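The authors assume throughout that readers already know how a fold can be written as discrete tokens. In essence, backbone conformation is discretised, so a fold becomes a row of integers matching the chain in length. A single example would do more here than another paragraph of explanation. For illustration, here is how one protein appears when written out as sequence plus structure tokens:

…
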Amino acid sequence: MKRWLLFGFIGLIVLFLAAWFGLQAWIESAGGRSAVERQLSAASGQRVTLEGELDVSILPAPGLRGTGLKVADPVSGREIASSRAYSVDLALRPLFERRIVVDRLRVEWIRFEAAGGRQVAVPTLEMSGFEPGSETWISVGLGPFGAVDGNFTWYPQRSGMDVSLSWSVPEREAVGLDGLF
């Protein structure tokens, strides 16, 4: 009995290492990186590019971390946003079906550029479940100015957004924002 437990334990370790090395090799290849870029681009409706260093993780969730993310308008190619660092958690079940589904995206020091050269940067932006027409959880860290947390649903076909957000600052009363914009 003890021998079977030992073999089972060793088998799990070997399976875990094989999955990690397989995912590492695939994601770090051009095909893996471009598959994640395609998924992020399809979800956002913009052209997303992963740049810089790339590292793969298995625990606590399969995913990748990197040092550069850029978002550009798909028609003009103009850069809309860029980030110094990012992490992408992938949904586990679709990986077994050879599909990529982004479960959670976190970007650090993301800079948004508006037409005319105006820019705004925020320390952290995290979202999960992003899909046009579906409710998405979002958290925006504003450093000493607190955080904005809530949900939104983006409707690209009508250029609208249903929003429910709360802004909390230490030692201040929270401020809420709800409505269709």
